[in-house]
Design brief:
The complex is a heterodimer. By secondary structure, chain A is of the alpha+beta class. Chain A has helices at 2-18, 23-28, 34-44, 200-209, 223-258, 263-277, 280-294, 306-336, 339-347, 351-379, 383-389, 394-403, 407-435, and strands at 55-57, 79-82, 91-94, 99-102, 113-122, 127-132, 143-149, 156-163, 172-176, 182-192, 215-216, 221-222. The two termini of chain B are 35 Å apart. The chains are: A alpha+beta, B mainly alpha.
Chain lengths: 442, 364
């Protein structure tokens, strides 16, 4: 059970953090400032390394490898661009004795370590990377620090590490070239994490441990609050569907078993296949159109009293009936061919006696499994029914979240559903032990 | 979607499992590819496949289903052809072109048979009234939608998308299930632990939400549909294959192959897999309608197909027109979906009965 829980956590993590690209971009769109993206990430722990690491990317400066052009210095007349031996060696050439700004998208965090990683080629003399703070009183430029880029063998890499002070607002970084042109093939900017395990994964685990599922960006609400609000309507819809559907399916499957190999049984089998083949959407649209709109037997849309639930429940029961009926009929018929049934018949037990006293009791085990395993799926509600009939449940919420790329909400719903399923699995094992004396726990 | 239907494959996996719980020991040796000594095979010694084929052919419903599936397949191929033709011509396909003069045309049999369609400039009406009526019948046989687009052609395009989704998702899910199942069943131990862990993890995530989440991460469009359905529905098959491989691992023919010094890959995929391949076939025929329904559902919700006519999109459009009394688009699309899903369900059942001798005896 614990490995599965861990697996679920890992898979949701992989899905949304590793493969998912930038959740901030997905949620906020592309035309937002780097600063708000960074704030979004900061709030959700997305600005950390994935699993572990001492350094992480920051949106303050986008890594640049000058593969196609001089990118950030494109408009600067003192910067040229040259193709290298291969595309990875493409580089910019900074003219001698000039300053070149390394623009930051937003001011850095105070008291944090950062570093520049610059791959360069300098034939002679020195160049400098300088940190200035021009925002001081009087507007004078105060050089905080300057790090030399030494000439040497072709293409070397230097890492310039520094720590921001108390007031990093307005910090500026320059590259100052000496008497020789400076060639640069890539510039990277990294922020230090507070410790080695300060990662997205650990952050995520911590969130789960605290039952904190983050914040919905679209609805601007805590996800846990949204879940609390949505679960009531969802259960009000799915529990009746489940119970009525189950009872109906079991009753009909018992009838099938009673009249097995007669026209009645065969008719039910055909009906079940036909019911199964009608698309769920069709049930809903037809039900809403004919029963609610044309005949006016039910309210069309809304969630105010139990009358509003009756049509969705009815549709849910009918649409699930085909599947359920076939499943339970198979179970009943499986039992009907057992030896003990033959013995019971041989002893002279009546048909209904065998059916209710022997078969139903023994069929309880597969029925129970199916019932308990279905319970976690009640919680997610029914996406289509809820959105068609305007029931403010979790299914509705989930589909909205997917449409608005609200990562936190989707992740929370998926995760909780999976955890409930794992719990239900455990419950099934326990129930086995209770129902079937042959099975023992441990 | 409701919890029972949540994925389709869950219940279907359970169904398959219950059918195979006692194994197929009776037929396995007859189907062993490696035991194929051609001299001993007499005319009365039928292989599993020819036997199953005969069984299916005897079932009239299954044959009818097969014809329907074949018809849809041909239509889907035709749809693919027109699609690529217009791609190559680099023009908007006619089933996408707006023609407001012919909007909301009812199906041809509900139109006045002798009324001339709107006459194109410079063309004289056909003088023979019967010919005109025939022309009328052929033009827009299933009517047009709100933009004057032909419902029949769009339904055909929907069939094309549905078949694409069914085939491509199977091409993703079935290899994953088969390979992982074979590895787990054959090697056991750590490998088995890992695979069981993997599939129980996948199984515990609510199916439809999982599909939708994968599709969301992969981006809207057909790729999201393929990946969403393909990457999440291999669990049932993997579980079945694993169980069967475990059973077959101790069979004499596998021991013999091992004694001959064959490697594990060869034994798994050349010796064991042909013997359990019927599971793959059954699973394919049962997952196809589920995949089609899921695609319809996703396209309906707007995270599936973009900018092409798919059944889900047509339903979503037709739903709004339904309130205005435009019933034909909705009717024909739902009928199209219903027929193909029903055909696959019936055929899948017949196939399972034919390939599973235990059920065959119980049906009698």
């Amino acid at each position: 059970m614990i490995p599965t829980v861990f697996g679920v956590i890992v898979i949701t993590f992989i899905l949304f953090n590793v493969v998912g690209g930038s959740p901030a971009m997905m949620t906020l769109g592309k035309n937002v400032s780097q600063k708000s993206l960074e704030e979004f990430d900061e709030q959700r722990g997305f600005n950390k390394p994935l699993f572990f690491g001492n350094w992480t990317k920051t949106r303050a400066f986008a890594d640049d490898s000058f593969a196609r052009n001089a990118s950030l210095w494109r408009d600067n007349p003192f910067v040229g661009w040259e193709a290298g031996q291969n595309s990875r060696m493409n580089h910019v050439v900074l003219a001698p004795t000039n300053d070149f700004l390394l623009p930051l998208a937003f001011s850095l965090k105070p008291k944090t370590k950062y570093r520049w990683i610059i791959s360069y080629d300098l034939a002679e003399s020195l160049a400098f990377c300088r940190m200035d703070n021009p925002g001081g009183a009087g507007g004078y430029v105060r050089v905080h620090n300057a790090w030399p880029l030494k000439s040497g063998p072709a293409w070397q890499k230097t890492e310039i590490e520094f720590s921001t002070g108390d007031n990093p607002a307005g910090l500026e970084f320059m590259l100052r070239t000496g008497n020789a042109p400076l060639k640069i093939s890539s510039i990277k900017f990294r922020r230090a994490t507070s410790h080695f395990l300060d990662s997205q994964f650990v952050f995520y685990l911590g969130q789960i441990a605290k039952f904190d599922f983050g914040r919905s960006n679209y609805f601007n609400q805590r996800v846990s609050q949204m879940l609390k609000d949505g679960i009531g309507p969802s259960l009000a819809l799915t529990v009746p569907i489940f119970v009525i559907g189950l009872l109906l399916a079991i009753i009909i499957s018992l009838i099938c078993a009673y009249f097995r190999d007669t026209w009645l049984d065969r008719a039910f089998v055909i009906i079940a296949v036909v019911l199964m083949s009608v698309n769920y959407l069709v049930w809903i649209i037809a039900g809403q159109y004919f029963l609610a709109y044309r005949l006016g037997w039910f309210p069309i849309w809304g969630f105010e009293s139990w009358r509003y639930l009756s049509l969705p429940v009815f549709i849910g029961v009918v649409s699930g009936l085909g599947d359920n009926l076939r499943f339970y009929r198979t179970i009943m018929l499986d039992e009907m061919y057992r030896d003990y049934v033959r013995t019971a018949f041989a002893k002279g037990v009546s048909r209904s006696g065998v059916l209710f006293r022997h078969v139903l009791k023994n069929a309880m085990i597969p029925i129970l499994t199916n019932v308990i395993i279905a319970i976690p799926f009640l919680y997610t509600g029914s996406i289509l029914l809820e959105s068609f009939f305007g029931i403010p449940g979790l299914g509705n919420m989930g589909i909205n979240a997917i449409n608005y790329s609200d990562v936190d909400v989707v992740r929370a719903i998926v995760l909780i559903g999976a955890l409930l399923y794992v719990a239900a699995n455990l419950l099934t094992d326990i129930c086995y032990a209770l129902v079937d004396p042959r099975v023992r726990l441990g | 979607m409701s919890f029972m239907k949540a994925e389709g494959t869950k219940a279907e996996g359970a169904k398959l499992e219950s059918c195979h719980s006692r194994g197929l020991s009776a037929i396995a040796p007859g189907a062993t590819a490696e035991s194929g000594n051609p001299e001993t095979e007499t005319a009365s010694n039928h292989s599993l496949w020819s036997d199953a084929w005969r069984q299916v052919r005897r079932n009239r419903l299954a044959v009818a289903s097969l014809w329907i599936i074949g018809l849809y397949f041909v239509l889907a191929l035709y749809g693919e052809g027109t699609y690529w033709y217009y791609q190559w011509r680099d023009t908007t396909p006619f089933y996408q072109q707006t023609n407001l003069e012919e909007e909301y045309l009812p199906p041809s049999i509900f139109r006045a048979p002798f009324a001339g369609l709107k006459n194109e400039a410079g063309k004289t009406q056909c003088p023979c009234p019967l010919l005109r009526a025939a022309k009328n019948l052929v033009k827009h046989p299933l009517g047009t939608d709100n933009l004057g687009r032909d419902v029949f052609q769009r339904t055909v395009q929907g069939a094309r998308i549905a078949f694409q989704v069914g085939i491509i998702t199977s091409c993703i899910a079935i290899p994953i299930g088969v390979i992982l199942g074979c590895l787990a069943g054959y090697f056991g131990g750590r490998t088995d632990d890992f695979v069981v862990w993997l599939y129980s993890t996948f199984a515990s995530i609510p199916g439809l939400l999982f599909i939708l989440a994968v599709a969301m991460v992969a981006g809207k469009g057909l790729l999201g549909v393929y990946l969403g359905i393909g990457l999440t529905t291999w669990v049932g098959l993997c579980r079945l294959i694993r169980g069967e491989v475990m059973k077959h691992k101790t069979r004499a023919y596998v021991l013999a192959a091992r004694t001959l010094g064959f490697g594990p890959a060869r034994i798994m995929f050349r010796h064991i897999l042909p013997n359990i391949f019927h599971i793959v076939i059954i699973s394919f025929s049962l997952r196809f309608p589920a995949a089609i329904s899921t695609e319809v559902f996703m396209s309906f919700l707007g995270i599936g197909v973009q900018g092409e006519p798919s059944w889900g999109i047509m339903i979503s459009n037709a739903r709004l027109r339904l309130w205005q009394g435009v019933w034909w688009e909705m009717t024909f699309v739902t009928l199209a979906i219903f027929l193909i899903v029903l055909a696959f369900n019936l055929f899948g059942d017949a196939l399972r009965d034919a390939l599973d001798p235990r059920l065959r005896t119980s049906e009698k």
